[in-house]
Amino acid sequence: MNKQKQRLKYLIADFTTAAIVWLLLSILRYYEVAQYEGYGSVYDFLLNSQVIKVEIIIPFFWLLLYYFSGYYNQVFGKSRINELFITLASVSIGVVLIFFIVVLNDLPQSFEIYYTIFFSYYFLQFFITYTSRYLITKHALQKIQRKEWASNVLVIGTGSQAARVQHNLADLGYRIIGFVHMNEQQYSAIPADRILGTVEDLSGLIRLHKIDELIVIPELTQYDETIQILYSLYHYKCPVKIWAEKSHPLWRAEVKTIHGIPLIEVTANNFSDAAKNIKFAMDKIISILVLIILSPIYAYIAIRVKSDSKGPVFYKQERVGYMGRPFMIYKFRSMYIDADKQGPMLTNIDDIRVTPFGKFLRKYRLDEIPQFWNVLIGDMSLVGPRPEQRYYIDQIVKKAPYYYLLHNVRPGITSWGMVKYGYADTVDKMIERLNYDIMYYENMSLTLDLTILIYTVKIVFTGKGI
Predict the structure, then answer these.
(1) Of 414, 412, 404, 410, nearest in space to 438 by CA
(2) Do 150 and 23 form a contact (C-beta atoms < 8 A)?
(3) Is pLDDT of 418 > 80?
């Protein structure tokens, strides 16, 4: 299944339908309003430069609105009911905005004409948009049902439960590449030629077979073992789902039932697609504004850093970010040069490696503000778990393997762990702080992000950064 190709279908359909609907509305506006304002024919009105300009802008407006609705995030596995409501909500917002921004500039002979234009636009925009989306989604579902499209999955589990439900997974558009044992002693109800190895072989199997998802199907007696295996799967950077029937202890978790098949997506959180897109856009906008507005402060800090001690103005260090990808994080240098020549060392409150001006920067967390550049280029977000060095991650996951969950979101300049716990100067303290970041991950929302930003501003102005 080609996600980009499918997404392009929706984009082209939405752009085309938006353009057609606006053209129809423009014709209606001519007969209801424009012909009484001096336009000799509908062609004269449609070829007016202002009308043409709006005709070009309107489809792009709709694409932007649909993007923020999250409609394009998941192009496969769409629920037609959810698609109906998302389209209805988007059209409701868009038609109201366009009506008040564009249509109210018309001066009809009768106030009732506004009602005619508004409801005509609303009906046409919803009906034509949803119809095109429905046809594309239906075609995709038919391809999946005919087994022409499928996601490559590995099933972890070879017991009777896995043997019993494998056909249900095929009906959902999953192509089962093979099965892997949870352990070498596991009883197998799966033919030997379908078993590709054990969980220790997953890394190579995922690369070899271009696996899209991992699905864990445990036996009822393997609850504790399943939990440990789930921890080990987080770092493979692909969706992990677990089969959990009502009799299974994992049923207390949130279960997404698809066509009666109970699957828990353990690598997902409750952050909606719409909120993800709004957060991403706000990250870019705020970063650009900060980099411009605070440029005099950047210049002042750069001069002070340079005059305070020898060395470069900026300090860069490799950290591990979104989907486990390494990136270079930027800070104003707050330590003497070669402070880390002996290898990675955590900073404590009385660290002699910190320069006099560096103490001021760290107290007000001004050493972090170059990271708005990291946000702008997509390495980081304004709010998210703080990124760590791989050296410390390797130590953390020995005690808290669920740390890998944090790689499913972009790391942040500030985080719930930083505002509620602060800096950590030992690995054990980093694990304590991790609990706050996991709490953030499981409860992500734009409201929580705003709360963390308010706390961060308070910390900056009160000088409680360390």
Answers:
(1) 404
(2) no
(3) yes
Convert the pLDDT of each residue in 38-67 to its tens digit: 788 999 899 999 999 999 999 999 999 999
- Per-residue pLDDT tens over the stretch 145-185: 887 888 899 999 898 888 888 888 877 778 899 999 887 66
Q: How far is CA 423 from CA 85, 348, 353, 416, in A?
A: 44, 8, 16, 12
The DSSP result for 158-174, as a single string, is -SHHHHHHHHHHHHTTE
Residue 454 CB partners (closer than 8 Å, separation 6+): none
Place of tokens 């019993």: 164
Residues 6+ apart with CB under 8 A from 275: 70, 444, 445, 446
Note the pLDDT tens digit of each residue in 286-320: 999 999 999 999 999 999 999 988 889 999 999 99
* CA-atom Rg of the chain in angstroms: 28
Q: Are 171 and 151 in contact (CB under 8 A)?
A: no
What span, in angstroms and rounded, lies between the C-alpha atoms of 26 and 248?
58
Quickly list DSSP for 208-276: HHT--EEEE---GGGHHHHHHHHHHHGGG-S-EEEE--TTSGGGGS--EEETTEEEEETT--S--HHHH
180-186: long-range contacts (C-beta < 8 A, 24 or more apart)?
A: 180/154, 180/155, 180/156, 180/205, 182/156, 182/157, 182/158, 182/218, 182/222, 182/225, 182/226, 182/229, 183/225, 186/157, 186/158, 186/159
Residues with Cβ within 8 Å of 376's Cβ and at least 6 positions away in sequence, in order, are 283, 284, 287, 288, 291
User: Do residues 320 and 407 lie in contact, with contact meaning Cβ atoms separated by under 8 Å?
Assistant: yes
- Can you tell me the distance from the alpha carbon of 437 to that of 385, in angstroms, rounded to the nearest whole number? 6
**Which of 288, 322, 297 lies closest to 412 in space, CA to CA?**
322
Q: Distance between CA 39 and CA 56 in Å, rounded?
A: 21
User: Rounded CA gap, 3 and 149, in Å?
Assistant: 11
Residues 6+ apart with CB under 8 A from 294: 369
The sign one gets for the Cα dihedral 119, 120, 122, 128 is: positive
Q: How far apart are CA 70 and CA 86, in angstroms?
A: 9
Return the number of other C-beta atoms located less than 10 Å from residue 391's C-beta: 12
Of 298, 309, 376, 292, nearest to 332 (Cα)? 298
Q: What is the pTM of this model?
A: 0.84
Q: Which amino acid is at 412?
A: G
- Closest residue by Cα to residue 404 from 215, 197, 156, 238: 238
Cα dihedral sign, 438-439-441-446: negative
Q: Could you tell me the CA-to-CA distances from 93 to 15, 51, 122, 264 in Å, in that order? A: 17, 22, 10, 32
Pair of tokens at residue 42:
């509908």
